[in-house]
Amino acid sequence: MLLLAAFLLSGCAAKPTKPKLPPPEVAAPPTTPAASRLREAIGYYLSADYHYGGASATALDCSGFVMKTYERAGIKIPRTSEQQFHNGKTVPTEKLAYGDLLFFNKYCQSKYSYATASIFSGSFPKDEQPSHVGIYIGNGRFIHASASKGGVTISNLKDDCWQRSLIGVRRYLPE
């Protein structure tokens, strides 16, 4: 039994192999100088690994990725996802624009997220505290530093889990 547990845990402890990401494509190129700088800054962090609490060019967490990317683009924003969520301009989801920050609660991390999301739709209370943040890059996609993917990755906002855990959008880019 102990051998079986060790075998199962070794799979969880292994670092996932992270493919090299191509530069993110967008529905339309960024139209402002600030958005263009942000796109260049995103490219700088594409190969970064995930590290909780990290904020370096090679290892960062989700809010560290967002903060450092914006900083590299010349825009200062707060460090944590909670601080980032409580600042910036609130934007309705239907008005998403390149560079907007997307905030998610822990729904995707719960044991119910994948297996029962469709069956119990709306049955779980929506936690309004952010636990994850990413940057919208167009075409329904966002880029973020993900622990489960091992680093900076691109995800589809239309995926069920991301839709259900989205709790807000904030804009930091000047218009």
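The record above closes out task 2.4. Task 2.5 opens with a second protein, given below.
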Amino acid sequence: MIPLLILSPLILLAAIGAVWMARPVHAALMLALTLALVAVLYLALGAEFIGLVQFAVYVGAVAVLIVFSLLITRPGDEAEEIERRPRSLVTGLLCTLPVMAVLAYTAASGSNIKLIPWQPKLSIAELGEVLFTSHAPAVLALAVLLTAVLIGAALFAREPDKTQDDSSEK
């Protein structure tokens, strides 16, 4: 219970920071911090496998991919984001408040929910063996797909070369 009480506010602050940062690279780094804190929470609560998967997949791959793709693309206009922020705050709150109300109601009335006992079909060791043996081609295909997406994003986001446009018009 102590890790939950300590890490939950830190996770919440990091997530708010990820949403609130004007610069995309800073927001991506705050997202990486949020995902890392969630992995630490899993580890502290005794879910070692899911905590290590959280570190490997989300912090190690997805967050680094986001930061890398932001660094190789052209810089954005943070001034426009800062100007737009007060207007989007009202819209965000109008979308968030009903969801928060439903979550609060569900949490408050959660004592009458009856849980059905569930037995996993695979143990953690068997799941790890299956993922890293028979499903290895799918993991490699996903890596190739993410690399192709990254290259496509970099090509899409780069500035068009002015000299090539001028020579093609002549």
